[in-house]
Amino acid sequence: MSETIQWFPGHMARARRQVQEQLKLVDVVIEVVDARVPISSSNPDLEAITGGKPRVVVLNKADLADPQATAAWIRHLRRQGVEAVALDARGGRGTGEVLAAVARLFAPTLAALQAKGRLPRPARAMVVGMPNVGKSSLINRLVGRRRAAVGEKPGVTRGPQWVRAGKGVELLDTPGILVPRIPDLRQGIRLAALAMVKDEVVSPTLVAGGILPELWPLVGPALAQRLGLTTLSPEPEENLAVIARAKGLLRAGGQPDLDRAAALLLRELREGRLGRITLERPEEGPPGSGPGSEVAER
User: Fold this and answer.
1) Going from the N-terminus, what domains does the chain have, and what CATH number goes with each?
2) Does 42 have pLDDT greater than 80?
3) Could you tell me the pTM of the whole model?
4) Mean confidence (pLDDT) of the chain
């Protein structure tokens, strides 16, 4: 795999332009990142794109992440003066905290409006994030009914739309912002492994083989129990071959089917069957440093 992963589809470029055009309409930006990879799933250009608008960082899919690591991220961000909320958008846990954070950030604007004798209005917020981090799931939870299309494939939300979250917040949902390239190979592998890059862009066998060394120290026993991988080889294809043989994923002639083994491993990871995993810790860099930033070796 090349150390530079190109993945900037045209509709993502349009999404970036839409965000820039609609920023004048919003008071607060809600950035949704994946709690398992808060660095890699943030956009390094977001601060420049949003022009310094007040921002809430929502660590979604916290139900799939290591709870201690998520708590460490929340403490880390809050120490830096950043509003941060852990969220399980599918289960609904944390949605109230998101709205409360938006209200806190909007309070100075609301006070200024009232000081000028203007009637109070709802806070206007923009939900942004990379594909498949859970933007639509968050909006659906906040509005209490299905209003934005939700799917398992990156980039399923189409076009901006306003939705009302109770009496205090109006949300503008936009397609996810995706960086044009990821020069850091490990971050690209992490994003692809967690389905934030389409499987058609990067070979699943390369992704599965590349993510295994990161998973091994975290969930080695689960890999042994569920997939039959009891030792980690330095050769990625050999690890996939072991999984294929253990799970009976064989081609004609008894050859291990590496493609099916890779698909199985990625499915187990994405669905949380290997356990609650966090691949990036606060000491590696803050959300917003984004793909391509220097990440410390663990």
Assistant:
1) 5-181 (3.40.50.300), 203-270 (1.10.1580.10)
2) yes
3) 0.86
4) 85
